Amino acid sequence: MQNYYQFLIPRLNGLEIKKDFKKHLGLVKKGIAGFIIFGGKLEETRKYVQKLQDESEYPLIISSDLEQGLGQQIKGGTLFPPAMAVASAITPPHPPLDKGGPKGGWSFEIIAHSSKLKLLKKTYKAFAEEAKYAGINTIFAPVLDINTNPKNPIICVRAFGEDTDTVSSIGCLMIRTFQQAGIVACGKHFPGHGDTEVDSHIKLPLIDRSLSSLTKKELVPFKDAITAGVKMIMLGHLSVPAIDPSGIPVSFSENAIRFIRNKMAYDGILITDAMNMGGIGKYSEEEAAFMSLKAGVDIILHPSDPEKVVSYLEKKKMMFDTKKIVSFRKSFSLSPSSSMPDLSNNQKLSGELAEKAIRTYGKFRIKSDPFLIILNDEEKEKGEVFRKELKKEFPGLKTQVIRMDSDIQELKIPENAFLVVALFSETKAWKGGASKWLFKKISSLEKRTELFVSFGSPYLIDNIKGTAKIFAYWDSDSAQKAAAKIIAGRK
User: Fold this and answer.
1) Which of these, 417, 416, 406, lies nearest to 441 by C-alpha position?
2) Least-confidence region, from 72-76, 117-121, 222-226
């Protein structure tokens, strides 16, 4: 009987890697292909991943979502700005929004600017070095989606931009940098998750574009990535009738697999998006896994219960070719990098990018102490660094924090105060985008506000006219400090 474990990459919770080691080791003994790591501490993760590698017949695929570097998952690693912020940091200034400038991404104009190209390569080399030290050999990045829909709840700042050139050029540079450093890059989410208002973690999105339209836009970054030699592509849980009229998710569509293999001439590894996502639609994880393998997918990612999936596959008794996955695994090294990355320098590099990424639109000058309103639709407290930095420059600063669970009915804003509204709303899985509550609050404050600052999606405020705006793209300490520094300079 065929060993179906070798097609699966289940979840490994890094913070519990020591406690759950026997369970993970049991899967390794059964022939599991590898793991996708969420969370953990750097040295502990490194230690126990190596123990698992030592017990595996073939090198394990140790993967992780590190779109923003190792710090996105592993404590001790460096957290870098999201993709859209990186694109902003390396591209020259452009027209403001109300004069024809693009909303979120900018034309890729850095090829002639060697210093910016050098900064980009340095950044992605740091990603790779830290991942290798942790024992991770596969990074699920770059995001090759083009964020063409401003209401997109899950791609947004994870995309390099809204135009093909930016996404394709930076994505391919990331691929080459990773793979030259010995890290497998995985382009995602084929054939493009940018033009939707639905989060595929929650339910199946529909990409209602013609094949001609897809070919001219969404598919271009994937085509270029294939030319660049990307070793892995992730299939999105997306219904794309232009590729498969049946509407089933691309992740287990035979038509989609034939399309990428034949029409796009891709012979590398194909992996599904996570099987625990609502985007698999009406199918169970076991059914979706079987359909994926039958369609020609090489790896099933993040089954909630790998044992249950294997049991289902065994009952189906269908044989799948193992040569490709075995050959792929043999290409990895069994040992992590022994060289400790320069984490301090990488942290400085992240801060430099965060500062360079900030974009300011509209003119403003602060003649009196600002009144700061923090709008937060996250579970955690946000904005304290920003408040403290502003307080240093404006000792008379007054602050009002408003969260979704707040029962504040009426704001008492001083009549002559310069009103700054800071928005904290992270783009993340399962959230479904920024809350309706946040949009209502923005609308209610729009006419009175003199400066909006978005520590997240630029689309929250990009359509507001006649008001100064600062786009920071994320809410790291470095981004908050950089935004505060800009405001302080307008006294």
Assistant:
1) 406
2) 117-121
Tokens coding 228 = 């660049």
Beta carbons of 437 and 452 less than 8 angstroms apart: no
pLDDT of residue 491: 61
Percent of the chain with pLDDT over 90: 87
Q: Check whether residue 325 and residue 450 sit in a common domain.
A: no
- Mean pLDDT of the 36-48 span: 98
Asked if residue 353 belongs to a domain, the reply is: no
Residue 359: helix, strand or coil by DSSP? Answer: strand
Could you report the per-residue pLDDT of 319-336, keeping only the tens digit for each?
999 999 999 999 998 787
Q: Where are the alpha helices (DSSP H) in 181-284?
A: 211-216, 220-227, 254-258
pLDDT, tens digit (0-9, with 9 covering 90-100), for 181-201: 999 999 999 999 999 999 999
The count of other CB atoms within 10 Å of the CB of residue 101 is: 14
Per the CB < 8 A criterion, the answer to whether 169 and 222 are in contact is: no
pLDDT (0 to 100) of residue 407: 65
Quickly tell me which residue has 């990186």 as its tokens. 86
User: Which CATH number characterizes residue 444's domain?
Assistant: 3.40.50.10870
Q: What's the mean per-residue pLDDT of the chain?
A: 93
The Cα 124–Cα 80 span in angstroms is 10
Rounded to an integer, what distance in angstroms lies between the CA atom of residue 473 and that of residue 103? 12
312/369 same-domain check: no
Domain count, the chain: 2
What order of strands is seen across the sheet that includes strand 398-403? Answer: 359-361, 468-471, 451-454, 418-424, 370-376, 398-403
- Whether residues 61 and 175 share a domain: the answer is yes
Give yes or no: residues 109 and 233 share one domain. yes
Q: Quick one: tokens of 89?
A: 């940091």
**How much is the pTM?**
0.95
Residue 277: which of 244, 307, 251, 241 has the closest Cα? Answer: 251
Phi/psi at 125 (nearest 5 deg)? Answer: -70, -35
The residues that bridge with 134 in the sheet, in sequence order, are none
Q: Domain limits at 477? A: 359-488
Check if the beta carbon of residue 153 is closer than 8 Å to that of residue 202.
Answer: no
